[in-house]
Structures
1.
Amino acid sequence: MIVLGIETSCDDTGVALYCTERGLLAQALHSQVAMHARYGGVVPELASRDHVRRLLPLTEAVLDEAGLALGAVDAIAYTRGPGLAGALLVGAAVGASIAWALRKPAIGVHHLEGHLLSPLLARDPPAFPFVALLVSGGHTQLMRVDGVGRYQMLGETLDDAAGEAFDKSAKLLGMGYPGGPAIATLARAGRAGAITLPRPMLHSGNLDFSFSGLKTAVLTRVRAGLDGEQARADLAWAVQAAIVDVLVAKSVSALEQAGLSRLVVAGGVSANLRLRELLSAARAKLEFSVHFPEAALCTDNGAMIAFAGALRLAAGAEPAPPTEFSVKPRWPLDALAAPGQASRPAS
Ligand code: KG4
Ligand code: ZN
């Protein structure tokens, strides 16, 4: 089965072709970062309009790359939510229309399920069950994953997401969006321990997170005056260390509490090298395995949507009705059900 995946939940237009027998056939991505840069964040209306412009050319590009005609596509998977309503509607409308024209099934995919399952695209994928740390610009969640659609929330952020903490700190340091890569780059010149910042909820005894206090601590530092480039780099180092330390400690606790020995990390922040290093160091000491998506699949992309859609359809999920589509800008991940079962209320 060949699935065309379409991702338009935020500021990346992602399209990919995934084949259940041969794996990922092609993928293409257009990032709107440059377009939104001057506004300091994503402008929803501009995002929607740009998805309209990019989607069909990108679809043609992946078909060309895979050497396939559109008719070779067996199903279409599009991101149904969560995300920006207008942006989601573009992908859903185009995906449903292509499916209708081809008389093929379409399926609306949960964006976070796409992230969550993306490490399974690796050559050596982890088996279920595992603990997943989902760290993106909008979400910070620890989940127990027993199979596709079998997700149990273990803990989540009470305020800002980890990616948001990177983004807001970067803004306070005068850097643009997305802030995660900017902080990580600046932190390379930073000195360990030159500045210390709080590690919010590190000892809270549960698996929840809170990052808004960190932003306040960074603001206080910046207001007190940062003398020169070294001081900025030291603060970037401290921001990254604080966020990563909390993510690592809570992930290890989640593995212990769930009695599991496999950790999957996904979402934009899973690209962070320090997070990868510290989790790998902890893995060696505590004997668990850790699995990341490959670098190109950490942030938003069409491949993870094609893959999640393919897994669901292969497991017997109902496709969307042929002439209907709808989006879910707010959609908790643990409200999802396993393929073939009715969805359940979120915990
Ligand atoms: O998953 P994603 O592409 O979009 C959402 O669904 O939110 O995640 C974007 C987030 C942004 O907050 C960005 O700053 C962060 O991921 N990010 C990083 C890195 N690359 C992206 N954070 C830390 N280190 C990175 N290398
Ligand atoms: Zn995402």
Note: The chain has a mean pLDDT of 96.
2.
Amino acid sequence: MALRFTTAGESHGPGLVAIVEGLPAGLELAPQDIDADLARRQLGHGRGGRMKIEKDAASVTSGVRHGRTLGSPVALQIQNRDYANWEERMNPWPVDADVDEVHLPRPGHADLAGVQKYGFTDVRNVLERASARETAARVGAGALAKSFLRALGVEVRSHVTRIASVTAPPRGADLSVADFEGVDASPVRCLDPDASDAMVQEINDMRKANESLGGTFEVVAFGVVPGLGSHVSWEERLDGRLAGAVMSIQSMKGVGIGEGFELAAKRGSQAHDEIFYSEGRGYFRESNHAGGLEGGMTTGDPVIVQGAMKPLPTLTKPLRSVDIETKEPAAALRERTDSCTVPAGGVVGEAMVALVLGNAYREKFGGDHIDDVRAALDAYKTRIEWKH
Ligand code: EPS
């Protein structure tokens, strides 16, 4: 049994689609579970004009009846409101109007490699699908995975840890779900109020200087049972799957598990999480440098995945490029764009982590109905004497 998903859709086409396969039957869902995450993804200081046009909401067209999953594929559709302004340029069918081609690939975007690979003369044929608009569909799919995980006691959260030169102070090791309560109230989704203010200022300053900004976020999954994933083969190592899933988000250039790259600088005696046991708690750790993963398996401590985003490649003061029709030097395409999407990146990161963890639960515990999954999970917790 696997939890799988796919998406379809172009940024300014009629809309986006996500299909999620492998959810058990009987799982309770509410439209608000999906739409709340879609709205969270649209927030964040540094967004551009497009977010005033879109108000993302999912229309579920299969796999759910009267608020419960049927065990069949769940399809959800998200309309692109902006399509109303692009009907000629992005119509699936031929139009009478003359539609100008785009010939100015942006450094850092999929534009140049995409037209070379697919044999296009129009960069738009690539950029429309490469656009991070697609992440709305991932977040819709991720919301379903989150509902499944929530039914098994798992909660997935995220926060922004850096925007350009501004870094949030290190978080405490005893982070809990409750600490994330107010995170969406910060305009940059940062847990530290002072760092949040400084990040907003940084975005304002850089935006004035026609710059875009990158940064880092951290996704934390609480309540994960030990033993998801496996050490026995490379494909089953859950850290590899999580890293691949988070790296696949547009603009990602780095992924870390737990303390990630920082662990490379630590001494062995300070890098690992010592093991303790008590009657009341069973096995436990007092630190979580490893980010809840050892040997490609979950340890039962919070799963922590960091993502690093590069600055967005669409710039209001464009970089040097080449006109792919004339081969002459030219400034790269200049389009309406966001200046910073790291806060949204964290929400997309939650979705990807939830989809990977959801799949790991499906693989390990199987079951056709959600009650089967719960029963298998409970039996496993009893066998390993898991008391958390
Ligand atoms: C994007 C460019 C902007 C973003 C878009 C991603 O769109 P537009 O060119 O229409 O202004 O707003 O992101 C979204 C629409 C979204 O929903 O996240 C790009 O080029 O990647």
Note: The mean pLDDT is 97.
